[in-house]
């Protein structure tokens, strides 16, 4: 298999952590978003959508979304289970994964890409250019604060985000919560359950990848 990575971006980090938790090692190629390599002809021949990560399977299938990569690897390497064992657990993991993507990852990206000079005319990922809309940044920051409250409530009930054990939902949530630093947002000091959870995940070997 061949894994296309970017060492500085959150989405590839999610895939790296999942791969590491499975105890797998793949040939990898680092694509520099800072240099715009994802927009070059060489990479777009692999993924015309110009997004990272990408996993090219031994069968030649090109997987360009984290959920697709995770589902493929979970099916091929079921242990340790990272997407739940029972029907209820599987549903809960995907539910919380979606919540983290939509209510934390998306508004962080919305805030960063609509304010940072490096993303001028690149407010949305992909091959097409889109102008920044600075007004979206305030809404994005408010959504992240709301997510921090939601996460704290959840983690007061459970040691992990979903299914009562470490799963894909923890990976996705951890990576985005950590990445919130780029918009100068952090776990509130009073959110003790979230801080304890974050320290637990950060101590895992996969989080160092």
Description:
- With 209 residues, the protein is an alpha+beta fold.
- The chain has 2 domains: 2-76, 3-Layer(aba) Sandwich (Glutaredoxin); 87-208, Glutathione S-transferase Yfyf (Class Pi), Chain A, domain 2 (Up-down Bundle).
- It contains 7 helices and 4 strands; from the N terminus they run βαβαββααααα.
- It has helices at 10-21, 41-44, 66-76, 87-113, 135-157, 168-179, 192-202, and strands at residues 2-5, 27-30, 54-56, 62-63.
- A 4-stranded mixed β-sheet has the order 2-1-3-4.
- Strand 3 (54-56) and strand 4 form a beta hairpin.
In the CATH hierarchy, the architecture of the largest domain is: Up-down Bundle
- Radius of gyration of CA atoms, rounded to a whole number: 17 Å
Q: CA-to-CA gap between the ends?
A: 18 Å
Helix content: 40-55%
The shape, in one word, is globular
Oligomer: single chain
SSE series: EHEHEEHHHHH
Tell me the strand order in the biggest sheet: 2-1-3-4
Structural class: alpha+beta
Largest sheet: 4 strands, mixed
Count of individual beta strands: 4
How would you summarize what this structure contains?
The protein is 48% helix and 6% strand. The protein is α+β, with helices and mostly antiparallel strands and 209 residues long.
Key words describing this protein structure:
alpha+beta, Glutaredoxin, Glutathione S-transferase Yfyf (Class Pi), Chain A, domain 2, 2 domains, 7 helices, globular
């Amino acid at each position: 298999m061949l894994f296309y990575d970017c060492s500085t971006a959150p989405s590839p980090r999610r895939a790296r952590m999942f791969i590491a938790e499975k105890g797998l090692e793949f040939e990898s190629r680092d694509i520099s978003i800072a240099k715009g390599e994802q927009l070059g002809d060489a990479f777009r021949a692999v993924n015309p959508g110009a997004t990272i990560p990408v996993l090219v399977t031994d069968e030649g299938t090109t997987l360009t979304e984290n959920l697709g990569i995770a589902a493929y690897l979970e099916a091929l390497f079921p242990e340790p289970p990272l997407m739940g064992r029972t029907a209820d657990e599987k549903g809960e993991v995907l539910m919380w994964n979606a919540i983290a993507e939509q209510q934390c990852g998306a508004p962080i990206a919305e805030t960063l890409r609509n304010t940072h000079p490096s993303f001028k005319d690149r407010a949305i990922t992909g091959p097409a250019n889109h102008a920044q809309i600075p007004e979206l940044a305030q809404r994005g920051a408010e959504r992240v604060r709301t997510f921090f409250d939601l996460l704290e409530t959840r983690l007061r009930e459970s040691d992990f985000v979903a299914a009562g054990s470490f799963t894909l939902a923890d990976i996705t949530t951890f990576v985005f919560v950590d990445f919130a630093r780029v918009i100068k947002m952090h776990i509130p000091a009073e959110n003790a359950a979230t801080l304890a959870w974050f320290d637990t995940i950060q101590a895992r070997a996969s989080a160092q990848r």
